[in-house]
Design goal:
It contains ten helices and five strands, in the order αβαβββααβαααααα. It is an alpha+beta fold. It has two domains: 104 residues, Beta Polymerase, domain 2; 89 residues. The chain has a five-stranded mixed β-sheet. Helix 3 packs antiparallel against helix 10 and helix 6 runs antiparallel to helix 7. The longest helix is centred in the middle third of the chain and has 24 residues. The protein is globular. This is DNA polymerase beta superfamily protein. InterPro entries: RlaP (IPR018775).
Length: 227
């Protein structure tokens, strides 16, 4: 299966700390990608997996239909794959998918980003209540996610690099900021994202028809390759 997914990979990027501008000497390289299986792989009763892990460490790839479904639902992980500037593999079909990235964006990102952050911050707060400290690297990820979500809502542009927030986020990761300050930062980011949603340049809904047409064309071309 590794070989088939490798052969059919249309896009692979680096996400995580390297894409966020938060990497240190010991940081893992998180690779995420998209593969497009031939249409014939779906004709039998046994359907192929929707994602594939490995064989490299921290490597995960999704089948292209799964990417389309998750992207239209404003899944933050998939949106980051489509917008990462650290591209390792990109075929002509991968170029098409990257060009299609704006079609996935909509005001749904407010719900997904806020919902994920709220659930994870609740877990962090339980950690504080139990032991006096959360898992700081997870907290960094959530602050970064809210920052990126707020920028996306305000501008219509998804930017992965944390920019001027880098030093402060690294201080959070090292546990040098008190929890009350981190929680206040979280509250401010949430309030700003909610406030800016009404004036967002993002459409209310993603362009599902455009994404659907593209996916059909990918499947059709794979059939034509068999002829």
């Amino acid at each position: 299966m590794d070989r088939l997914v490798d052969d059919r990979t249309i896009l692979q990027v680096v996400v995580g700390s390297h894409a966020f501008g938060l990497a240190g000497p010991g940081s893992d390289t998180d690779r995420r990608g998209v593969y497009a299986l031939p249409a014939a792989a779906f004709w039998g009763l046994t359907k192929p997996a929707k994602h594939h892990e490995g064989p490299q460490p921290e490597q995960l790839r999704w089948e292209v239909e799964r990417v389309c479904v998750l992207g239209l639902a404003a899944n933050p992980n998939v949106l980051e794959v489509l917008h990462s500037p650290l591209v390792e593999i990109c075929t002509p079909v991968g170029d098409e998918l990257r060009a299609l990235a704006p079609a996935f964006l909509s005001r749904r990102v407010a719900d997904t980003y806020l919902g994920y952050a709220a659930a994870q911050f609740a877990k962090a707060e339980r950690g504080v209540a139990r032991s006096g400290t959360p898992t700081w690297r997870h907290v960094v990820h959530l602050i970064r996610l809210l920052t990126a979500g707020g920028h996306l809502v305000r501008t219509g542009e998804l930017v992965l690099d944390v920019g001027a927030d880098r030093d402060r986020l690294l201080a959070v990761k090292a546990g040098r900021l008190p929890w009350t300050e981190v929680a206040a930062w979280r509250d401010r980011l949430v309030a700003e994202l909610v406030r800016d949603l009404d004036a967002s340049p993002l459409p209310d809904h993603p362009d599902e028809a455009r994404v659907d047409q593209w996916l059909i064309s990918v499947r059709r071309r794979s059939v034509e390759e068999m002829a």
